[in-house]
Structures are given as structure tokens and as C-alpha cells.
Amino acid sequence: MSARLLIFLLSIVFFPFNSSSTETKPIRITIYPTIIDKKVVGSSTTIINKETIKENAHLSLGQLLSKFSGINFENLYSGVDVKSSVRVRGFGEQATRNVLILINGIRISDMTIAGANLSRVLIENVQKIEIIKGGKASLLFGDGAVAGAINIITKNPLYVEDKFQVKTSLKSFNTRQQIISSAKKFDDFVIDYSITNLETDGYRNNSEYDQSSFNFNLTNFNDGNSRTFAEFKMTDEQTRLPGSILLTDFYENPKQTRFPEDFATEKISSIKLGGEKNFYNENKITSILRLEKKDQYSSMLNWGIRYKSKTTLNTAHFNSQFISNKSTLKKDIIGKFGIDIYNSTYKVDANNWAYNQYINKAEQQIIEPSIIINIKDKKITGLNYELGIRSHHYEIDVFNLLSSRVKVLSNNEENYAWSFGADYNIKTNNKIFGNISRSYRSPRLDEIVTVGPSTSINPLKHQYSNEMEIGYENKLINSRYKISAFRNLIKNQIFYNSTSFANENYDPSIHQGIEIELDKKISNHLSFSSNSTFMNSYVAKGSFKGNETPYVPKLRANASLNYKINSKANLSYSYKYFGKTRAGNDDNYILPKSKSYQISDIKLSYNFKNFTLNTFVNNFLDEKYYTNLIMGSGNAAYVYPQAGRTIGLEIEAEF
After folding, report:
1. How many Cβ atoms sit within 10 Å of the Cβ of residue 93?
2. Distance of CA 205 to CAs 78, 192, 209, 305, 386, Å?
3. Burial readout 106-135 (b: 16 or more C-beta within 10 A, e: otherwise)
4. How far apart are CA 573 and CA 563, in angstroms?
5. What is the pLDDT of residue 106?
6. Are 335 and 293 in contact (CB under 8 A)?
7. Tens digits of per-residue pLDDT, 42-59?
8. What are the tens digits of pLDDT across the range 392-422?
């Protein structure tokens, strides 16, 4: 009742009744913090625009990202983004540690191995998504972006208008979602909020999921060129954990659960404060402070042993940037100067296999100043350079708190990332691009503070990699073609060794491949889009030389057709192919590869005045497939079953 009352009161307060302020011109909002500003040079970058996001609003955010080249999205439990990972350019089970997810330039990938929980992102609030692949992302955004970064930009970066929006959806497996959002504009400030609730029984037994969230944002316009803002978010999530099942059981009863009593909860609250100032000489400065607290609890009954774990993660992230769009020394040089400061505290209270309690705590600080220079060549028309360097200072202290505060590990490290890239515009909308870069990642907090006694804590070497990329892009009025090739050498890659039950540095590995993209407007009503990724990811040296990276297919492809029936109705079809992959925890190749799969989706949307109706069928051919094949005890194959045919209906009203 309290949640319903809150929704009702907020709806009354912020419902956009007509007022004198609505008759004024829309308030200009400067662009949310985004370091790339469409000016990434020499790197394969994808911008997902608002129109594409709206067309795919019936999908989860992870499913939307997987429609683009070089990106795989794998979730353990079908239907929601929880317990999932975005895998970019040859990173499989280690993707959550090497792919950085940000919202408006501020990371939501925290300093643990869990990575970003994409279910926290409301796709209806997303304005655009910036995908930066490869080591260049490490220069732009820092630690944990070896494979790339995904920067999610919310709201309209230019204008905000009064609105009140209600959306409800019904899907298979008793999945229900309700969203209420509103924006109210006054003379010199804007208030917007959103309230969401998502519940599902899940595809499998013991796979229920329930999430509620509240988001409130206040933006104040000091004048036409500056603003300050405050944002508060709160999320409460409860997840059942059915676990993997035997591959033989998958073919007989894929809905069964292996762990009928396992569950996890997560409560997150965060506050963000920031400001932005644009100067008349086209320079800009932004500063943001984000504080977040995450409380997690999990209960697992495995082999008769009840594992209980309580963790608390407190994170502070300060980001400040100065972007000089015009230099007093030379007008063709653009400089970007920034600093990121992270402070994280992680505490775990759990029991091990022998029912011995342990309480460990880690304190971590990272300081990363950076500078990026963009240069337009005056002698060669159409040639742009971009070079930059980011310094990485890392400190961590680990304590055993069970009986007293005993320091068991202290480590300081220095690292760095750099990149040099170039674009050469052969002619308008026709360019060659390329870059070389160095990236890094430091050990995550819970890669050091593991689920085990403190005596298992060992320092890890920091991972680093060297990458090169070259590509060509051709844009015409009704078509676009792009091809890029890349090669990444990774050293000291951090893996979890299930035999020693510890995180270790593995032998050097190679991630290399080719990405091909083709978009074509066939007629005024019909458009076609496709992409393919050819990937080879393997260990380059050592005892497992030649072994392929688990969960990375050699070939994956996407294609879609979009038919505009008339001004009100639209029909779309999408296709996905995912090739065979090696199993996790199978260095000796005991198990055969997982089978490939193909998925087809269809969607019909209809607009009438302020209402939008979406009907869709995902996996309408009812493909039976699984993900995350892994070798368990006794060399048995375990998998995570995924849903077959799923139907859904969404109704959206905007006023």
C-alpha cells in the first residue's frame, strides 16, 4: 500500500498541468557527461540513437546491445538482465571484469567481479548509447575497460518538455512490468522521476525475480550556459537462483532447478551531485560526485552445506573534466583533461565449506588523471589524429576482522593506458581509421577477498594488453558499410581457477577478429540491417597454448528487416546466429563444444494519438538452446537453459 500511495502522491505533484512556464521555450540542457562527444578518432565506435532504442524498447538492455557487432549478451536466467554479462571482442567468462558500463560517463560497473547489473537501467529513460570497443576505452574511462566500454546517456541531452508517461507490459512466464515516469519544467529548473516494478515467475523452477526502483532527478539552470543537478536512486531486488543443470537433463526437463532453495537479495541506494559550465569560448568543465551503497545477501545449499554470505560495498566516484574546444595557441587542437578518483570499501561476512565463519574487509583507492589531444592536420585535408595517456594509481589493504583487525595484504601498483589513433576522410562520409593502444585492469576487490578463509588471500599481478585496429567505413544516403580488424595481446589475464579455488594470472592470450556491418534502406517503407563478427580468441603461450577462450564463438551474426506499414503501424523481424563455444573450466578439452543456435523475433507496433501498442514474439520458432556450458565434478557437462517461445504485450501512454 505504501508504494501505491507514493505513486499516487507523486503523480499528483508532478503531473504536468498547464502553467505559465509551459508557454516558454524549451529549456536547453547541455549534454550529459560524455567524454567522446562523437569525436573518438581511430576507433570502432557505435552510437545507438533514440529511434533505435524506442523501436527495441520491448527488449532488455542486454538483448538490445547484442544486436550489434562484436557484442554477445549472456544471462544465466532467461528474461531479465540480472546475473548477466556483456561480452565484447573475445572476452567470455571474464567479460564482467573487462567491459565497463557507465551511465552519463559515471561507471555502474563496481569494483567487484559481479560487474554491472543492467536491470537497474530503465531503457525508456535512455536517450542514446555509445559503444567504444577495444583498448581505446581504457584511455577514455579507465580501469576495467580492456575490451571496451558502453556509455548509456539518459534523457534528452538538449531539451526537456513536460510529460507524464505510463507503461505496462505482460509477457510469458507471468512477467509483469509497470513504469510511471514524469518530467515537470519550471522557470529555471526541471524535476523528473520514475517508479518501476518488474515481477516474473521465470522460465525455470526457482527462478522468480522481483525488482522495484525509484529515481528522482532535480536540475537547476543557473544561466543559459551552466547547470547543477542532484539525483537519487534506490533499487530493491530479489532473485531466486536455480543454478545450472546437467546437459542430459536439459533435453528431458530444461525447466528444472538444481538448487531449489538458493536465493539472493540486493539493495542499492545512490546519490549523485554535479555541475557543468560552458564558456563562451566553447570550453566546458564538468564535475560529478557519486556515492553508492550496495547490500547483498545470498543463501546457497550445495552438497548439504549451507553457504551464507553478507556483503556490503560502499563506493565513491569523483569525475572532473575540462574540455577545450578552442585553443588560444592553435585553433585545430582540442584538449580534454580529466581525473577520476574511486574509493571502495568491501566487507564480506560468510562461512566456508567447513562451516567456519570469516569476516574480511578490503579498502581500495584508485586515482586516474588523463589527457587527450585531438589534432586536425592542416597539410593533409581530412586527416585527424588523437593521442592520449591515462595514469593509474592503485592501493588496496585487506583485513581479517573475525577476531581483530589484522592486515593480511597491502599492495600499491602503478599502471597506465595510452592510445594513438587516426582518421583519414578520403571524401565526404568515406574514411579509413586505425589505432594502437595499451590498456589495463587491476584485480577486483572480491578477486582478492574470495569466498574462503583469509589465508587464501594472495596478491595478483595487474593485467595489461596491447591492441591494434584498422577499419574502413562508407556512408551514403541510403546505405552504410563498415569493416574493422583488430588484434589484442593480453598478459597476466586474471582467471578463477576452480581447482585451486583461487584467482590466478594466466598465460598470455590473443583476441583477434573481423567485424562487418551493413545497413541498407531498400525503399521508403523497408530497411535492412546486418552485422557479422568473426572471432579467434585463444591462449598464446604456456601449457594450454592454443586453447580457445570459453564462451566465445568463432562466428556470430545479426540481421533485421523493418517494414513501415503506414504512419501508425510498423512490423519488424530480427535474426541472431550464435556459433559453437568451448566450455568453461575445461582446459583439457574433455567436453565437446556447445551447440550453436539461431533465434528469430517478430514485433508489431501501432501508434494512436498518445498511445503505443507493442505485440511481439521472441524466439517464435521455439529454438531449444542453452548458454554457459561448464564442466563440473566427474567431468559432467552443466548448462543454463534459456527460454523457448516468448510472447508479450505492451501498452504505453504519454501525456
Report:
1. 19
2. 12, 38, 11, 21, 52
3. bbbbbbbbbbbbbbbbbbbbbbbbbbbbbb
4. 9
5. 83
6. no
7. 888 888 888 888 888 778
8. 999 988 888 876 778 888 888 999 999 999 9
